[in-house]
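Morning!

This is the sequence you dropped in the shared folder:
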Amino acid sequence: MNKNVLILIVIVAAAAGCFFAFRQGGGASSDGVLASIAESSGTFSVNSKPAKTGDSLKAGDIVEVGPDSYALIKYKQDNYELMLFASKTSKENARCEIKPLKSESKTFVINLINGILTFFVPPADQRTSTLEITADDAVVSIRQTKGKVENDPSQLKVALVNGKVNVNYKGADTEVAAGQQLFYDKAGAKKIEVKPYDFYDKTEQEYYYKGKVDNNPVVNDK
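The structure's back. Tokens below.
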């Protein structure tokens, strides 16, 4: 076979492979891996089986952590980082599910079933995708920001340290800015409220710094 023809075949095959991978998942590797457990402390599991730092995560995987424990989930694409903690107001373990990519592979989705999930999203010019967190009937569309989502049988909270998020709850949109938190009382008033959020509170900072406290946190809406 002519050498130039062989080179052309290889190039076309490689291009086709890249196109197929993008159509099938974009941010997912050929084995379907979307993220991994980058760091952990205490007891946690994946799909009800003991897990360890470094384990890969695919669509459909459920991460669960117990009291006084956490798991840091890091996506392969765009370096999204999310830390899962058990809520102190609930007796249940924290659980979240890695969801399939959507919007032609440009949106990563993670579903918070129970517990607290803090998120760290890079600036828009440093990523090629977006991130959504779902919790019950709420969809949190995250821009460049740092904050947390808390979901348990009694309440839903979305709190922001910096940046902005849009929360769609049962079709109604609410924008939450830095220094604010959306609160929904599931058992009581059953209405959306936006309240001040005190990130400087020691208890809150523990969720962002893995039990440690930042004495000089920066809070802004950029």
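Headline: Residues 2-26, 211-222 have pLDDT under 50 and may be disordered.

More detail when I'm at my desk.
O.
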